[in-house]
Design a protein that fits this description.
Mean pLDDT: 95
Number of helices: 16
Low-confidence stretches: none
Distance between the termini: 7 Å
Radius of gyration: 22 Å
Number of strands: 19
Strand order of the largest sheet: 7-6-15-16-17-14-18
Strand content: 15-25%
Structural class: alpha/beta
Length: 489
């Protein structure tokens, strides 16, 4: 039996491997020239950059993919635990190093607000309760039946999942800077902490349980290792090809049609494309169920991303591997991005310095960086041909005056991606960085289903489906699909 996987992000790659382990002949198709989707890599003048995800948590999810074929990830990839996991830098010059042992985290909290040590322990305890249900039990559970969702509602209510991440954090912490540090995680999966369901509070315990790691060679080194595993297993990888539509006969998917007009037949299709794009552009509305059309009509999307990649001709040895650079405004800035969809003069930033751990990312005596700035998605109507260069200059000036002094004179080989690039390169609807937003009303059964509604033989993985965005989420979505697809006969 033949399976086609559309899209070679982590969700698509994980699906291809799981299908191969089930005995399918597998073809993996992606429109980019590299595997990895948002986890590709770039190189400019000797400076290397991971294109997107850089934070590795739950490394056992990668181990599982190699173990399907009696291999070990550790034979190909070295994962290095980071400390701190993140350094938070505030507008008033204060900083907070988060990560390491529990005692080290408490010591940092005590330095800023001693009274919040007890609150943090209670937050962590609550996070573990959410983790035990939301991750351990439900991250690989299919929610294609409403009755499955209904069965979970009492437990989700007991865990207060109707509250937002911000409400969860402020219940336990009083210091405003610590509240910001411990509520910002939803931004890493495309959500506003003031809207995102507190189910995502499980990230605190996930990080505590497994740590935060970096793969030597970068996240894309994991992609390369998975690519070689797929080649060893005989998976057919076709790059530089775009799937235009699905071949539908009756209510069954029978394959895909490429942009060049070629038809490829298959017994099942797994889509790692943005599901909002999939249902708006690749499947005729009349072939979709009512619920699919409803979900695809006007969902709330995650924010957009402006990502500036650059090198520096000097090293910054005191800069952490991961820095969260917070501006003066927090709630108001997020409201501008998510609700008003305006591009403010101020911003908050995520700064990645891989050379803090792996010097091979830059020439000798240099550093490699990227800085990620949350911005409105394309529904904001910004002209990125105009706004891109201006935002680039504002970010460089802000970092020059704070974390990276003299950057304006040492920056080199810089380039950037805007929401327009996400739309063009990844077919991300409205250029959203993480597909639809992680709201309670767009979670579990309410999210795009892993098994397509109303269409046979179509399955969906990736950020826009259950359990959600982020590396653990998209890889777990392939586990959900694995549980739904029978072994090849």
């Amino acid at each position: 039996m033949h399976a086609i996987v559309i899209g070679a992000g982590f969700g698509g790659i994980a699906s291809a491997l799981r299908l191969k382990a089930k005995g399918y002949k597998v073809t993996l198709i992606d429109r980019c020239e590299q595997l990895g989707g948002r986890a590709q890599s770039f190189e400019r003048n000797g400076f290397r950059h991971d294109a997107g995800p850089t934070v590795i948590t739950a490394p056992f999810l990668f181990d599982e993919l190699f173990e399907l074929f009696d291999e070990q990830l550790s034979d190909y990839i070295t994962l290095v635990p980071l400390k701190p996991w993140y350094r938070f830098e505030y507008a008033d010059g204060e900083h907070f190093d988060y990560g390491g042992s529990l005692e080290e985290t408490l010591a940092e909290i005590r330095r800023i607000e001693p009274a919040d040590c007890a609150g943090y322990l209670k937050l962590l305890e609550h996070s573990k309760r959410i983790f035990d249900v939301g991750f351990t039990e439900l991250s690989a559970q299919s929610f294609d039946s409403f009755w499955v969702m209904l069965k979970q509602i009492p437990r989700l209510i007991r865990l207060q999942s109707y509250k937002t991440v911000w409400q969860l954090v402020t219940k336990y912490l009083k210091n405003d800077q610590l509240r910001q540090a411990f509520s910002i995680q939803p931004l890493l999966v495309g959500g506003n902490p003031f809207d995102t369901t507190s189910i995502y509070g499980l990230i605190h315990y996930l990080e505590r349980a497994y740590g935060v790691h970096f793969a030597m060679g970068g996240t894309n080194a994991i992609i390369v290792a998975l690519e070689n595993l797929m080649i060893r297993q005989g998976i057919d990888i076709q790059l530089g090809k775009t799937v235009k539509s699905l071949v539908i006969e009756g209510a069954s998917i029978k394959g895909v049609t490429l942009e060049n007009g070629e038809n490829l037949r298959a017994d099942i299709v797994v889509s790692n494309a943005d599901p909002a794009y999939l249902y708006r552009h690749m499947v005729e509305p009349k072939k979709q169920s009512y619920m699919t059309r409803f979900k695809a009509k006007k969902p709330k999307f995650s924010m957009g991303l402006f990502v500036l990649y650059f090198g520096s001709t000097q090293r910054y040895p005191d800069v952490a591997h991961h820095t969260i650079w917070l501006g003066k405004r927090y709630r108001e800035l997020l409201k501008d991005i998510f609700d008003h969809k305006v591009l403010s003069e101020d911003f908050s930033l995520y700064l990645h310095r891989p050379t803090a751990t792996d010097p091979s990312f830059a020439p000798d005596g240099c550093d490699s960086f990227y800085v990620l700035c949350p911005v409105p998605n394309l529904l904001g109507g910004q002209d990125w041909a105009i706004e891109g260069p201006k935002l680039r200059d504002r970010i460089v000036a802000a970092l020059d005056g704070t974390t990276l002094p003299n950057l304006s004179k040492t920056i080199t080989a810089d380039f950037y991606m805007t929401p327009k690039d996400f739309e063009r390169n990844y077919l991300s609807e409205h250029g959203a960085g993480f597909s639809i937003a992680p709201l309670f009303s767009q979670s579990a059964w309410f999210r795009f289903h892993n098994r397509a509604e109303g269409l046979k033989n179509l399955y969906v993985v990736g950020a826009g489906t259950h359990p959600g965005a982020g590396l653990p989420g998209v890889i777990s979505s392939a586990k959900v699909v694995d549980s739904l697809i029978p072994s090849a006969k």
